[in-house]
Structures are given as C-alpha cells and as structure tokens.
Specification:
The complex is a heterotrimer of chains A (about 375), B (about 260) and C (about 450). Chain A is α/β, with parallel strands linked by helices and about 375 residues long. Chain A has a domain of about 150 residues: Rossmann fold. Helices cover about 50% and strands about 10% of the residues of chain A. In chain A, strands 2-1-3-4 form a four-stranded parallel sheet. In chain A, strands 6-5-7-8 form a four-stranded parallel sheet, with helices on both faces. With about 260 residues, chain B is of the alpha/beta class. In chain B, the strands form two sheets. Chain B has a five-stranded mixed sheet with strand order 3-2-1-4-5. Chain B is globular. By secondary structure, chain C is an alpha/beta fold. Chain C has a domain of about 220 residues: Rossmann fold (3-Layer(aba) Sandwich), CATH 3.40.50. Chain C starts with 9 loop residues before the first helix and ends with a helix. Classes of the chains: A alpha/beta (about 375), B alpha/beta (about 260), C alpha/beta (about 450). Chains in contact: A-B, A-C, B-C. At the A-B interface, helix 16 of A face helix 2 and strand 8 of B.
C-alpha cells in the first residue's frame, strides 16, 4: 500500500516531507516533549506541533557530556538529535515534566546551546505539570496553560482565540476517532496491518499537519478494509516505556508474531480519550490532557492503567503481553512488575523486557528473550 | 531417525547427535571467528565420533547466540527452551535449571513436561557468570579448575562485597597483599559468585528439583555455595553440563519429525 | 526464602546501650570495651558515642532513634496506625494525630551505619521480588526490611516526594499497590514560590492529606495537640537558624555527624519534645566549640559543599574521616531546611496547618529539585547563596545511582557552579547506601586527592 508506505517512511526520520513542505510555505513548527502537552493550543496558534523523538541518533557522545550515567537513552538521543542539528527546523520547543529524565532536557539543551554544542530554538519554554488530580490541580494546570499560550502569542505575534481552539478540538478529536478505528481493525482475527506499520502511522501523525493526517487516515482505513490480513501467528500486546523506533516492533514481529495492541504513549494511550466539545474549550482541552489514560508518572493511579491494559489485551485477544522498559525507566519498570503479577494471575502470559533504546541497541539479547517467550506461549 | 542439536555460543560451540533415546556423540569446541564455521567444525567432530555424515542427520535444530547463521539447521530455538528441555529429559523431576555459562547466566523454570514456563537472563554483567571466575582465577594466580577444590578447604572465607568484577578484583588483590590464605580467597570468590546467581534465581523463584548446567556447573565450590544459599540439593548430571543446550536442540529436532500426541 | 531477623534486636539493643551509658556515665575506655562486646553495634557507638563532644548530642540522638523504632514495634499494640511516609517531610502533623511514621530511608540509613553489611541483603531482596535494581537504595533498603516482615506492616502510604522525585514516588506508589493499603499523594507543584500560587497549591495538598489522615484514623485533628507540635517545631527551627549562623565561623565548629543528626531528627520526630532535646544538645556543643575556636582536625584545610548527599554506607566512616582529615562539611543537600522562607504561626488551626505546609514545602529536595536548575528557589540558586554565605571552597556531588533527577542535571549544575561561582567541583560515581557499587576506600581517596591537589592552595 503506497499510502501506508509513505506514512511509515515519514516516521523513520526526524525531518520528513511534511515538515519540509510546511517550512517552505513559511510556517512555524513547535516541538514538544510528550503526550501531556496540549497540542491543540499550538494548532490553534496556526503553527505545526511536532513531537520530538529520539530516532535517527546513532551515538550519544554529546548527550553524555551533559547527562549522567543513569539517564534514559531515549532522552539522551533527544539531546543528541538537537546537538546533531536534526531539530534545527524547530522555531520553538516546549519541554514538560513527564518524568525525571525528560524534564532535564530543559536544562541540558540550554546548556549545550550555551556551549555552542546545539542550536536552541528561539522560543524555548517549560510547561510545569503537577502530579495530583483534583480541582486545584486542574486549576493550576489551566493557569500554567494560559501562561504558555500568552508566551507563544507574545513571541510569535499570533493569537489563540476561542474559535481557534474549538476548531483545533474538532480536528484533533477526528484524529483520535480515526486512530481508534485503525486500532479496532487490529482486533480482527485477520490483522490487516502489522504492529510495525501501525507504529509508523502513529508516529507519522505526531510529525505532520493533523488535517493532512486525517485525510490520509481516512484513505488508509478504506484501503485496509480490502487488504489481506495476517492470521495464524501469536498475537502480542506491547506496554511500557516510550518507543518511536519501528525496528523494535519489527524485531518482535520478525520472530513470528504480530503485534495487535499496545498501551504506549506513541500508541493507544495518546489518542484513546477525546476532548469534550461543549463548554469552555481551553478548560476542556486541559481536562482531557490531565485526565487521559495516565502515564505511570501519575502516582496512585495503577488501577486505572491496569484496567486499560486488561481491556486492550482482551479486545485484542492477545496470546501474550510484552512489558518492556528502557533501562533506568523506573516508572514503567515498576508498573510492569505489577502488570506482570496481575496479568499472569488472569492467565495472560507476560514477558518482562529491560532494553536499551537507540544506538548500542541490544537486538541479540532481545531476540533471545522474545523467541523464548514465543516458545513458552507455545504458538 | 537421527537428529542433531547445534549450540553456537560466544565462547564455545557444542553439538549433540541422537538416535532414539541414545546419545551417539556430544562435542565441545572453542568458537571460530564465524558462527557458521564453529557450527561446521563442531558438527564434523560429532559426526566423526558417531561414524556418520551430515546426510545421515534427519533434522537439526540450532540454538545459542549464533543460531540464525547455521545453514544445515532446519530450525532454530532459543537456548533458554533448549537448556530447559535438555535438563528435563535427563532428569524428569527437574523444575528449575540454573545455567551459568561463560558470559551469561540463565534461570529457567519448566513444567512437568519440560515445557518452558518462565525464565530470566543476565547477559550484560560479568558478575555471576564464568567471566567473573576467570578474572578471579587470574588474579589469584591459579587455574580456573582449581578454584572449586581450593574453596572447599577454606576455614575463614573472605567476604567480597563489590558487585562489580573490577572492584572485586581490587578487593582480592588487597587480600593477597595481606597474605590471606588462598583457600579462604577461593571460597570468598565462589560465594560472591553464588550470591549473584541466587539473586537472579530469586526473581523467577526456585522450585525443586534444581539442576545446574553450563560451564560453571563443574565448579564444585560455586555449586556447594549455591546449594547452601538456596537450601536445596541440586541434581547432578551424568552428561557434560555444557552440552545441555545442544541436547535440548536435538530433542526438539526429534519432536519436529515425530510430534508428541 | 525468608531473611533471618536483623532488626528484631535493634531497638532493644539501642535501649540497652542507652541505659548502660546513662547509668555508668561511661568513660572512653568503657565505651571501647562495649564496642568489643557488642560488635554488631560497634559502628553505631563509634559514630555517635566515642568522642566526648559527639556523645553529648549522640546520646539523645540514639535515644530518639531507639524511640522511633520502639514506637514502630508497639504501634499496633497501642491501637495506632502506621504511615509509610517519605523522609523529606517533617512529621509533626502525624504526631499531632497520633500516627506512627515509618520512613524507609530512616531504616536504610540507621542500618547502613549500624550493621556490618548495611542494607545490602535488603536491597537485593527488593530486586528479588521484581523491582528494578535501578531504583534508589535509600528506599530499597528500608522497603526490603519491611517486606521481609521484620517490622510491623504499614497501614497507609503518604507520598511527599511527588514533584521532586519519580523514583521515590514510584516506590511509594508500589508499596500501596503491593500491600493493598490506602495511598495519599502530597504533591509539590512544578515551580517554587514563597507566598504565591505554588505554596497555595501545596497548602491545598497538605489539607487534603490531613483529611485523608483523619479518615484513616477516625480521629479529628486536635487543636491543642497540634499547637504543642507546632511550638516544638518552632523551637527546633530556632536552633536550626542558630546552628546555621555558627557554621559560618572559620573553622566551622559543627562536627560532620551533627548534620546527619539534624536532618534525621527532623525526618523522624519533628514537633516532638525529644527532637528539641537533640537540637538543643547539638546547638550547645557547636556553641562551645565555636567559643573555643574548635573545628576539624588537625586544621580546616577545605570547606566542602556537598551539593546533595553524604555517604551512609557501612560504619559511619564518612563523617569521621571528614572530621579527622581537615575537611569541614559546610553544607549538604539534606540539611537545607530553608527556614528563612516560612515561619510557624501557632494562632489558629489554619495558620498552623499553613505553617507546617510551608515547612514541608521548603524541605530540602522538595524545594530545590522540583523544577529547572536555574529557576527561582531551585538548586543552583540555593547552592550559590549558601556557597557565598558559608565561604565554600569546592562542591562535591555524592549521590546514589538511583537518583535520576539529580544525575540528569548534575553536570549542568556543576559546570554552572564552576563558571559562575569560580569554585572547583567533583562528581563521584557512588551509591550512598550501597558500598558494593564503589567502595568507600575508593571514594575517600578520590575526595582526598581532589581536596589536596585542586582545592588546597
């Protein structure tokens, strides 16, 4: 499928034809660090939200000058991409406190730029996230979001209007619904799209204009309806640390499985919940981002996450769940331990996989373990 | 029906040939630069021993680090499943296989039929693998195979606390300077080794019967130390523990031709 | 496979020791004798009792430690609830509600000093049940002790590390799920201020916690009891301020181990009269030494700012070595109570809750590593202010490999300190509660070399 191929290709690199086209037309691009940053406000400001990723980095030598030995390699690759100039097209970047690793990008990127080792986008902001849910937390986050919007408006000479936000909500909700439809196709006995391809589509969606993405998704869904599916292979689910690297899923699927479901932030967790289309648009946006399927950074919310994981596993009729975490990712490692306990208790086999992200990626080790897991689940 | 299993690791390559329930040959060699070469060479030796040629092999399963690169293997299976299967076939009461190899350490749980249930592997850190013993033997100035017997005669085993082999080495050097008895040092080394293996084993749980495979199974000091820590008596193998993976491969090959039930 | 009881005899031994010493008014010779007779406690004795000037404060401190563990052991017998709570929180409010605190970090630290192999086996225990070995040993040690069944089981979890530390918070999240006990998150907001939206948010979180505690215990907060605790907390803050001033002197008269005693006292028993006694003793000794011009031996050759932690493993050697090798421990991350940013007002329940919230909001770690390094009230500003005020020669980072937050920012922090404060820095790859990572001997040699070659002119 040509359309699918194009999307997957766009997901493999940092820059891509959509980004280039946007820049050529004089548009501004704002990078953001993760799923807790409300993209809609950037869209409403007429700029392209771009989720920064660690893919393409082939070394972490500059990152090692600024980060310690226990920093997540995904985050190091982010900084390395900045150092290697791959993010030079960004007119701005918003970094948030999703986790202790990624929040330090705000400090290290600035220092690297000060030292002449990386280019800092002209607009560089921190978006402060609390951790507790509740009325006062949502209020705090709302105030913080207003502050961010004002800073954007001031720097770029743009205006974020209520109508603009409503428009953004509609577009983004459409994306979310279309992606959900895509994921529903994967629940079928004959799976028309592989896990690797799906990740490609999801990642592509984070680095291209949503209006264009929605058009392509609609075409894709139509095309997949006619595509011959994969069946007779063990059906797997992946849950755990951030992953924008298609090769990881490919490695798993090449061993003779198909990934049909996930609980990932380049995945189901980032589009499963929609924004309320009634009421004050900014409040609706902030509420949705704050209340969506939580990342393990939200303490005391394990049961919400586990319900989601269990639900997704059952819908996908999975034969096993791979619980992966990037080394030093304590948030996911800890949750994975609990998921493993609870899923196995329900008769769903799990594999706990600690891995390295990016350069020095340990494919031999991973293959042995995944293969053994497939042998264990006996398919 | 003649089957074979070929296990190409990072340090050694093993081959086992079976006919029916009989092991016709089991060979171990040091690896060659290319896994394919290692496989051919070890297989050649085994075939020679069994007075056979490659054509006589009805099915060969490969395993180990280099398993994907063996041209004469019809299929490849993880060394985890193979070790579990091999050990279980030899001792059907086995439920936990602790494989301590030259460069990695695995703990494998199998069920009553020898099927893989759970596993854990350390293939990153030298501590708890044969590599640790090698480094320590050099530091102590003894042969690798002397460490075990030496450790059994210790009166006051030293405590080596460092997790990292590099620092452990420094500790041993310091003890040698203090003229600590060699037996006590050897016992400290085997104990430190056993601690690491035990730590790994705890993560998947240990159910009896337990068998220790891999090169380090030949080190009586580590075996005894580990038995004490796990409070079990391990079953002893009649076959060289290093060939467990290849044996498992041969057994899987047998199943491929004549599936059970 | 259960671990053999280790802490079973610990509180009793501490009590026996304290009783013996009080009764005999032990001489140095007697103390050495005791060390021989009780090898398991010999490093506790050596660290807190051996030297007369240390003993004056060490004795009440060990009594406090003994009380803490005894309370833990007796809590359920006395019908009290046990709260598993983070160390970086003054527990006055818990005492006001008759709740017994247990902090895993306190357990890890005491055992690291007192037991020959520290908490190594308990750290390994947590790995054995499936927790990542990359998590922080400060929690892992204590958690291993609790989960092996050596203490009473906690009844609830209070996470005060929210906002400053993911790893710490996640362990607490885990404990609640694993033990099936209720959880309350007390969140430090993403920025810091003294009197703005941030402290207002925190006050709401604090009150949320009080409501949770009242629900868990079925008791209502008693105004008089709260006032008692706040009054003591205020006295303790006054001592903190006085001791801070003494620190400025050349040589610094505050012995290194007093820093541990100060923060451990705050973590364990803030708001109790017993804690005030410890602070008083610390102050008296420091004042005496200041008058006599006494400091580290043989003489003060370096005034070191430890920007984060000290080193807790096995035996307390870290503090003793500093004191006898001319290195003044000027500041360490854990004693940054930041008393100047809040005050304790005992007028009404509301003012008292706000005061205690203010105290918690400004506790070290909570205050300065919650946001970007150079933002107001954050790590760099705190270190820079103190470095100038206390006349610091160099900055050293001792940490734990579990600390993702500080490891993620330390190189930038130290580079900034060198560039803007002109002070040499050293980053050590160590683990404060696990000597197996890098042995103390190696760290000691590195620090010595750094001080002698880079710092001392």
């Amino acid at each position: 499928m040509e359309l699918l191929k194009k999307l997957v290709e766009a997901a493999k690199t940092i820059s891509n034809p959509y980004v280039e086209e946007w820049k050529e037309k004089g548009g501004k691009i704002i990078g953001y660090s993760g799923a807790y940053i409300p993209e809609e406000i950037i869209y409403a400001a007429g700029m392209l939200p771009y989720r920064i990723g660690g893919r393409e980095a082939t070394k972490v030598t500059t990152a090692d000058m600024y980060f310690g030995p226990v920093t997540c390699n995904y985050v190091k690759c982010l900084l390395e991409n900045a150092a290697d100039g791959r993010f030079d097209f960004l007119d701005g970047a918003i970094i948030t406190y999703e986790c202790d690793h990624i929040r330090r990008i705000f400090d290290t990127w600035r220092k690297a730029a000060k030292d002449g080792n990386a280019r800092l986008p002209a607009f560089f902001e921190y978006y402060g996230l609390p951790h507790s849910r509740g009325e006062h937390a949502t209020k705090l986050l709302l105030a913080e979001t207003r502050r961010l919007i004002k800073a954007m408006e001031k720097h770029f000479g743009v205006e974020v209007t209520e109508e603009g936000l409503r428009d953004a909500i509609r577009t983004y909700n459409k994306t979310r619904k279309l992606l959900k439809k895509l994921y529903e196709l994967r629940e079928k006995d004959e799976v028309p799209i592989t896990g690797a391809e799906t990740l490609g589509v999801v990642v592509a969606g984070t680095v291209m204009p949503k209006d264009e993405f929605n058009k392509q998704l609609e075409k894709l869904l139509g095309g997949l309806g006619r595509r011959k599916g994969v069946s007779g292979k063990p059906r797997l689910m992946i849950a755990g640390s951030v992953n924008d690297d298609i090769e990881l899923v490919k490695l798993i699927e090449d061993l003779g499985a198909v990934v049909v479901a996930d609980s990932l932030c380049f995945g189901a967790r980032c589009f499963w919940n929609t924004v309320e289309e009634n009421g004050d648009p900014l409040e609706a946006i902030v509420t949705r981002y704050w209340e969506h399927i939580p990342c393990p950074r939200m303490y005391g919310e394990y049961s919400r996450r586990y319900s989601f994981v269990k639900d997704i596993a059952r819908r996908g009729k999975v034969d096993g769940v791979i619980l992966e975490h990037i080394r030093f990712c304590d948030l996911h490692a800890t949750d994975n331990m609990l998921y493993g306990r609870d899923l196995e208790a329900e008769g769903i086999p799990t594999l706990r996989l600690e891995r390295q992200y990016g350069p020095l990626a340990d494919s031999g080790r991973l293959k042995t373990r995944v293969q053994a897991f497939l042998e264990r689940i006996g398919k | 029906m003649i089957v074979a299993g070929c296990d190409v690791g990072s340090l050694t390559a093993k081959a086992v040939i079976m006919r029916g329930e009989e092991i016709l040959a089991a060979e171990i060699i040091g690896v060659r630069p290319k896994p394919e070469q290692s496989a051919r060479d070890v297989m050649e030796r085994a075939l020679e021993k069994a007075h056979l040629t490659l054509k006589d092999i009805d099915y060969c399963v490969s395993t180990g680090y280099g398993r994907e690169k063996i041209p004469f293997a019809r299929d490849n299976i993880s060394e985890i499943s193979c070790h579990g299967r091999g050990a279980h076939w030899l001792i059907p009461s086995v439920r936990t296989v602790i494989d301590v190899g030259g460069q990695d350490c695995k703990v494998i749980r199998v069920d009553a039929t020898g099927k893989l249930q759970n596993f854990i592997m350390n293939d990153k850190c030298a501590a708890g693998t044969g590599r640790f013993l090698e480094v320590m033997a050099k530091t102590l100035g003894v042969r690798l195979d002397e460490i075990g017997p030496l450790s059994l005669m210790a009166k006051n085993p030293v405590g080596i606390t460092s997790m990292c082999s590099i620092y452990a080495q420094t500790e041993v050097v310091a003890f040698i300077a203090q003229e600590v008895d060699r037996h006590d040092l050897a016992a400290g080394i085997t104990r430190a080794m056993a601690e690491r293996v035990k730590s790994l084993a705890m993560r998947v749980g240990v159910e009896e019967d337990v068998v220790i495979t891999g090169g380090v199974a030949k080190n009586i000091g580590v075996v005894k130390s580990l038995e004490g820590m796990l409070r079990v008596t391990t079953k002893k193998l009649t076959v060289d523990p290093q060939v467990m993976g290849a044996l498992g491969g041969a057994l899987f090959a047998r199943e491929k031709i004549a599936p059970k039930g | 496979m259960k671990e053999k009881a280790v802490t079973g005899g610990f509180p009793q031994a501490l009590s026996a020791l304290q009783g013996m010493l009080a009764a005999t008014r032990a001489t140095d010779k007697e103390i050495r004798g005791m060390m021989k007779a009780m090898p398991a406690l010999s490093s506790m004795i050596e660290t807190f009792m051996l030297e007369p000037h240390i003993r004056k404060a060490g004795l009440p401190f060990l009594e406090l430690g003994s009380t803490y563990f005894r309370n833990l052991g007796n809590a359920h017998k006395e019908g009290k609830k046990i709260a598993f709570e983070s160390f970086n929180f003054p527990p006055a409010i818990l005492y006001a509600l008759d709740i017994v605190p247990v902090s895993p970090e306190v357990i890890s630290s005491f055992l690291s000093i007192g037991m020959p192999k520290g908490v190594f086996r308990f750290i390994d225990y947590t790995t054995g049940i499936g927790l990542s070995e990359t998590m922080c040993t400060a929690q892992r040690g204590g958690v291993g002790v609790i989960l092996s069944g050596l203490t009473e089981k906690p009844d609830m979890v209070l996470n005060m590390a929210s906002g400053s530390c993911d790893t710490n918070s996640k362990m607490f999240d885990f404990m609640s799920e694993y033990l099936h006990i209720p959880f309350c998150n007390i969140d430090a907001p993403p920025y810091w201020d003294e009197d703005g939206e941030m402290i207002k948010y925190y006050r709401k979180e604090y009150r949320k916690m009080v409501a949770f505690l009242e629900e868990q215990t079925g008791k209502k907060l008693d105004e008089d009891k709260l006032r008692q605790c706040c009054t003591e907390a205020k006295k303790q803050d006054e001592y903190v301020a006085e001791i801070y001033d003494l620190r400025r002197a050349v040589p610094n008269p505050v012995p290194a181990i007093f820093n541990l005693m100060m923060f451990a006292t705050r973590f364990m028993a803030s708001g109790t009269p017993q804690a005030t006694k410890v602070m008083e003793a610390i102050y008296e000794v420091a004042k005496e030494r200041y008058k006599k011009g006494e400091g580290v031996l043989p003489r003060e050759k370096a005034r070191v700012g430890f920007v984060y932690l000290s080193h807790f493993t096995t035996g307390g050697e870290f503090w003793r070595w500093l004191d006898h090798n001319g290195i003044s421990l000027m500041l360490e991350g854990l004693i940054l109570f930041n008393h100047q940013h809040y005050s304790i007002d005992t007028s009404t329940v509301d003012t008292m809750l706000d005061s205690l919230a203010g105290q918690a909001h400004n506790m070290m770690m909570t205050k300065q590593i919650r946001g970007p390094l150079d933002f107001p009230g954050q790590w760099f500003e705190d270190i820079a202010t103190l470095a100038k005020d206390l006349n610091i020669d160099c900055a050293i980072y001792l940490g734990t490999l579990g600390c993702k937050n500080t490891w993620g920012g330390i190189k930038v922090l130290m580079q900034t300190i060198e560039e803007e404060l002109g002070v040499p820095t050293l980053i050590m790859h160590s683990d404060a509660w696990d000597d197996r990572v890098t042995p103390w001997a190696t760290l000691r040699d590195q620090i010595e070399e750094f001080v002698d070659t880079v710092v001392v002119q």
